[in-house]
Design brief:
Order of helices and strands of chain A: HHHHHHHHHHHHHEEHHHHHHH
Structural class of chain B: mainly alpha
Distance between the termini of chain A: 43 Å
Strand content of chain B: under 5%
Number of helices of chain A: 20
Mean pLDDT of chain B: 93
Number of helices of chain B: 18
Shape of chain B: globular
Order of helices and strands of chain B: HHHHHHHHHHHHHHHHHH
Radius of gyration of chain B: 20 Å
Number of domains of chain A: 1
Oligomer: heterodimer
Number of strands of chain B: 0
Mean pLDDT of chain A: 95
Helix content of chain A: 55-70%
Largest sheet of chain B: none
Strand order of the largest sheet of chain A: 1-2
Helix content of chain B: 55-70%
Largest sheet of chain A: 2 strands, antiparallel
Low-confidence stretches of chain B: none
Shape of chain A: globular
Strand content of chain A: under 5%
Low-confidence stretches of chain A: none
Amino acid sequence: MSVVFLRKYLGKLDIQLVILSIIILTLKLLIIGEPWPKLPPSECINPPLSTDCALIFDEAHYVPAARKMLMGMAVNNEHPPLSKALIILGILLFGDNPVGWRIFITLSGAVSVYLLGKLAEIVLRNNVLALCSAILFAFDVTSFNISSMAILDAPAMMFSLLSALFFLKGRYTYSGVAAGLALLCKISSLFIFAALLLYYFLKMSYLQERFTDSIRETLRIIEKTLIISLVILLAGLAVYDYSLKAYSTPFEHLDYILNYHSILTFKEGDTVHMPITWANPIMPFPREAYFVVTVTVNGKEYHPIAYYGMQTPLWWMTWLVFAFSIYSSILSLRNKVFPDNEVLVLSWISLTYLVFFPLAYILHRWVYPFYFYSTVPIISIGLPYILGEDKFSKTILFFMTTVQVAWFIVWFPVKPQWLIDSLLAIGLPA
Amino acid sequence: MKKTLMKKIVIVASTLSFIISYLIHHPKINGNIYSDIISFWYRPLVRNVKIPYIQEGFEYPPLAGLITYISSIIGRGEMVPYYNAFSIILYSSYLLLVLTVFKIMDEKNIPSIFIFIFLIFAPSTIVYLNYNFDVVFTAFLILSLMFFEKSRYNFSALLFSAAALIKLINIILLPILLAYLKDWRSRLAYLCHFLMPILVVNIGLQIINPSFFKDTYFYHAEWGLENAWFVYLFPSRDSWDTAKLFSALLMAYGLLKIYLSNVGNLYEKSFMLLSVFLLTNYVFTPQMVIFILPFLTLIGRFQPAFYILETANVGIILTWFMEKDPLMPGTLPQNLALIRATALLYILADTYLKASGRKITFKELVKPLVKI
């Protein structure tokens, strides 16, 4: 009876994705309080902030900003307010502590896993491959870390994936609404949305007889999506600006955001991890320590808490996925078939990753490896797509997925003692 | 009424409206209204009879510089002779414009009354006719479109080129003209005839004076917002660079919308494109309304919103010098510019819907919002 029940329900992708998301959520909730601050919130508002404030990475910007916003101050205006509003909501519900700061971000991260699986289901049309995609994304340790700390990226990702999901389902108005919410979390969400529009334009250029028809069709979709998303962004900024008296109009606020981000340039001598190092296994960027606690016992060093920004096996597959998509596109076009998935993959990688090459190398704009978080979803979908054809390829895919999960376990940010002992016992870093 | 008699009436009426415009801007008449012509006179370029672009920079394209130079030569450093010479050139252009519009109306059986309402006695014509180069630009543009309709493409392209050498704005009409042409060969020929004079003159001047492009064209990029409705969205001067980006995106969207629509004849499309340009550009000086007046005449439809547009547009210059900083939101000129933009938007929507066989109703206007 129970076997029949399990087969009936566990065989459904939706249930599998929900279970996977719950696993990720549980893991996140188990470590949500690590690190825990030793100083009261009142001493963790203005810089310099002590490590005893227990703020991981850019939490040092956003948690103090949320505290000041709670006091009625308009701060951190270079970023839109929705993610910070979620941090505030958490503080109001659970108190000014790590649980409060991180709870909604954590939830966003877990929901993103489910949404990624649903997106993969549409693209790959295969439940096993879609589940594989979701696992690759869920156990991407850097993505896990980013979506476990009180920063802007996880809610932005959640709404971006929701927008992409609606977009691929042809529900453009809803896609625009979700994109608007993503923009209200982080302006750089525009890159994912632009990738979707580019994909649609290229598709129309192939399918429509006349080029003008493809522009007309794309313009129709832009009206339904981009314009709605911009209206939502402006409305959200307006609520923030008028309630906290930050700017006289949301357009002025948008001007500040654009100006702020366009002047963030580096000089000669600055240490910048350029985009080529983000997905390159031969010359990777050095692991970035977001928050690391080091313990030495009997001459053995280990890290019970270690939030890192680092490459994962999935990231190494980027160029492979990119190159294969180009090759496969050429083959499809030769056979007079539009390479739908390949164009989606190429557009997404181009506008979330390749776009940083000219920005960094030509315009000298500061770039950070964690920007690659926006590219991870499409690599998670692209890899099962290129390895989903035959049995041998699938074996490689399952092997890769296992390696990704193993990597996650090794670099899991907050390790229990038994895991530390086990890793040390087999000579792995802990 | 006989055509010849009507033509005479049109000429007399045009002369009358021009005389009014001449008098209200005349520098020696007390209480005269500001005009760009007189403001040019105070520059060394005109006062000391210097050659534009070569001896002294000028922020208008070369044909506009030529008109100014001829006027300054005749004026020999004297204000009134210079003003008179400039006025004669503008009057000639005005007559050319009116007669061309009249000829097109006659061919299309459009009632003559519209030329009096929308062009000859339009408040903007009277106030902004003897003011700047707009009437010369519009005359060349209308003449070019008339020849285009008659399939005299080479002549049309040369006149289109002349218009661009006065003010570059007509370039926004180029895509629809090229779309009307039946094959790539004729499109290429039109482009060549259009581009050749522009390239020869501009490259020649650039060779003579290496800062020609910077002084003439890039100068405008440094301008701030002037009478653009979105100054209310970007009230601080510091944010005007973003306002210009907003303007460019809005303009690209609006123009694309018209280019891709299969709505309206040549004149309706031209009107819609020019209106989109005026509504989305970060500079919408009041004399620019002259661009659209002949098109409203040729559309030949009574537009009540036209009087709101005109009253507000004339009001801009009449209230301009009452304010300490007339470019700022909340001042009288900017409030009038906002009213003007609303009226023009209404006329544009009305033209678009009527050209596509629909009526402008409240339901039609809110339909897209309800859909959302």
